[in-house]
Please model this.
Amino acid sequence: MISSSGWQGLIISASMSCAVDGFTQQGELRDSFALKNCLFGAGSALVIGTVLQSAPKFKDKLKTFAKPVLVRGLLRMLTEMPSFPPGRAWDFYRLIHPDRIQTEDVTTLFDITPEYASNIADNLHSSSALQNLFRDGDWWAEVRKFTDNPDLRGKLLDDLTENLNLAQAFKERPELVRAWEVALRQQAIRTNVGWLNRIEGWLAEGAPAVQVSKLVDEVEGYSSLKTAFEANKVNFFSWKRIDDGIPIFKAEDPHGYLTCLKKMTHYDNTASGDGTVKYYRVQGGNSGSASSRELIIAEPDGSLTFTDKDRELYISTDDMDHAIYFITGIGVNFNGDLITRNPPNRINGTIIEFEVPKWLDNQMKGEAIPQHRATLNSLSNNSPQIVDYTQPGHPFGIKKHWQTLIEQNYIQGSARTIE
Amino acid sequence: MKKLMMDKLTGGIMVYALIDNNPSYYYAENSVWLLDDWHRQISDMSYWEYIAKFKIDFTTLPFEFLAKNLPQLILDFDQKILINNYFDQAFEDRIPEGWQGIWMENTTEFLNMIPVQKRYWDTD
Model:
């Protein structure tokens, strides 16, 4: 196993002997031990050839040490000798204990409890690629620092030795350990590199670990949600708005919840740039009415008049899809499904079109909450409501404050009635 | 005080509801009346407890509020029928299983569904 054959390897061997032997006394650490002096002394001795002849003796002596003592010596070498050749500590250990990797080797090298050690030993034994991964750069010594808990570290190492790609990912990005801990309850997630990268990204952006764990549990129980995350159609922070505000939505209307979540993510993802956004409103139905239901009027000069801002104003944004559906009963929704209703909801409706600045549209959508039981939504603050999620288009209900903002900021001259 | 009350009475609609043959008026924002979102609470009757806070007390409401807020939705919990005269949202499509939802565009016909003695807008 050791690749540095010849006298160089023996220098290391002798040095290690000195290191292990020199700083212990009856198994206890010796405070006054000077490692560097020992190493240089051992190296010098080898160079002049006096120790060379007695190398097997060193090896035999080292073998008599308990494995934990040897590992402590190796770790000290790595700590105090940054120039120590990478991978040689592992090589050295294997030189002294070249047999099949045992449970004790695993518990000692990685500082884990025995629960998973047998399986880990089997995995290591059967894969030289895995062994090389832990050897190269003496990564095994870094793995010892993964998590604060030897039980947990054993579980993590069990996952890593079951999947070479996963182990490689952890070697490249040790911060994935944090994501792995957050996803601990769900094996399929915690062993999936894509998900771990995704989770680590959320944590790096400040997502609360407890809430990410909750999301991990949720996606494992809702495959469509998992698929949506994997396709980047939903994001954590939109999910968080529902989880914070109205978590009961998830169980009470899973399809509406997922569609609404996709829309919130879409609004989040498109909340940049400038320009204007077209808004539409369908109104009418004055037959026999005692009072007008025209809450906005498109004046001939393209200005907009708000007639009663005390009432909820329903508008749809971006395209006419929802307005057309409301009148004709046909359209394609955000999920790409054809939606039909016969007869249509409001065959007598009139469509008003106007434009608002993109910044206001971003603001309105960024603060929007689902309409589902909105009076119980803890984030509700006269917020815009995303309504009729599964119908075509992007309909919202807005209260007085938002109507006033639109009234003050809509694009002058843009209002018109669509015939 | 009056302003505070009026601030609460915006953004919603007036609803005439029959529960155990007892008629009452309620005013709340539309999400409260999307009955499919509340189907579990309607089944276990906790919904009625919840909407009690939206019940209208005619002795405290300003006339101008009543004058401009005619009922736009009838909910008959006894017969499981919803009748909608509110144009902007299709409440008639948002009902629990076993309910009947009806869109009634003509406001006069709609208001005539409410018993004469309960028509607060009809002072004659």
Observations:
- The interface with chain B takes residues 252-253, 282-285, 287-291, 293, 308, 310-312, 314, 326, 341, 345-346, 348-349, 371-375, 382, 385, 387-388, 397, 399-400 of chain A (CB under 8 Å).
